[in-house]
Each structure stands twice: as C-alpha cells, then as structure tokens.
C-alpha cells in the first residue's frame, strides 16, 4: 500500500502546543477512559511533528486513546516523557510493545505521589494558611500567597515538561531524588500546626470551655460519620445550615 508522506511540523512549536493543551487534560473526563480524551488531545501536536508517515501517526494516536488517569499537575511531565519515548520509537530505539507497561506504571505511580503531595498536603497547606491569614486580617499577604502559589505551579509545570522532553524516562530517576513523599509528610505536620492556629484564632472569647469543646466534639463526630460513610456530607451540610439559621435567629 502506498502511503503519502507528510512534511514534519516544527517539533519545538508542536511541543509548546502540547504543553498548552496539557491544561485541558481533564476535559472530556469519562467513566470508561477517564482522562484519555484530554490526554490524547494534548499528545496530538507532538505526535504529528514526530511521525510523517500517516500510518505510523495513526498507530501512535491509538496508543493514547486507551485508559489514562493521573494527577493533573503531572500532566505536562507525562506528555513530555511519552513524546520523548515516541521519538525513540520513531527512530527504532524503543520497542512499541513496552510502551503500554511504561505508560501505565509511570502514570499510576505519579498519580499516587500527586494525590499525596499535591492534593493531600500542598493544597491543604495553601488553604489553611490562607484562612489563617484572612482570620488575622491580612488580606494582602493572603492574596500574595495565592498568587505566588499559582505562579510556582506554572513554573513547576514548565520545568517538568522541559525536563521530560529533554531527558525522557531518565528524568524519573532525578524526580525520585526530590523525595516528594517525605516533603508531603512534612507539609502534613505543618498543616496540623496551622489547624491549631486556626482553632486558636476562632476561639470565641465569650464562650466557656464546655461550649467550645462540645462544638468541636460535634464537628469531630460529624467528620467521623462522613469519613466512615455512615452519613452523606450533603445531609450534614443541610443540617449545618438549618441549625446555624436557628441559632442566629435566637441569639
């Protein structure tokens, strides 16, 4: 079969487009392939620049419409690493048969790290620190913290994408040395301290110890009921609003 070859698109520009599309990895989330639609959409410009043979390009596209799921902060790095692997496949230096195993292992491992470090530690730290600053009346530092966190996240994404393209799978060894899991644990200790500070800031001067401990014990009990699945969080939210309105009316 004669296959018409296409001209290669500039790889650098294609990588920039793939990076920008990484912000849409979560788009098209579905229960069958999870993030596969957004991920394959982000891979598309890079694959078009790597493969000039339409049949090879079609086969490469099919490799990324399968199930995919990882933490969104790792999206740029994973896209860059897999584009780097595709360059090696196109050059005949990497067996296609190994890609699925590498793809699943890498994305699931980074997903677990992302859930622990980013979702379970860093974002909680940002939220608690912002609440504490606002309770203390420091609106400007709270805004600056949010802005610095947002900028820092974009720098992290650009750096990991650039490293993934230039170093490929070997960048994972460098990433391991960052010791992110331990940093996540340290942030959780910091979050515990922040929580105590917030409790102290919220301490009502007019309330006695019995009222305060009763309130915190009630919240703890509700948290336990939600965490163990004995009651839905929606019911607790409705009860909280109703009780709050009742108390406000009679205070």
Task: Sum up the structure in keywords.
elongated, mainly alpha, 251 residues
Order of helices and strands: HHHHHHHHHH
Low-confidence stretches: none
Q: Please state the average pLDDT score.
A: 87
Radius of gyration, in Å, reads: 24 Å
The number of helical segments is 10
Give the overall form: elongated
β-strand percent reads under 5%
Largest sheet: none
Bin the helical content: over 70%
Structural class: mainly alpha
Distance from N terminus to C terminus (CA atoms, Å) equals 83 Å
Q: Could you tell me the number of beta strands?
A: 0
What does this structure look like?
The chain has 251 residues and is mostly helical. Helix 5 runs antiparallel to helix 6 (139-167) and helix 5 runs parallel beside helix 8 (180-202). It is built from 10 helices and no strands. It is elongated, with a radius of gyration of 24 Å. It has helices at 11-21, 36-50, 54-62, 75-90, 99-135, 139-167, 171-177, 180-202, 209-227, 233-250. The chain is 73% helix and 0% strand.
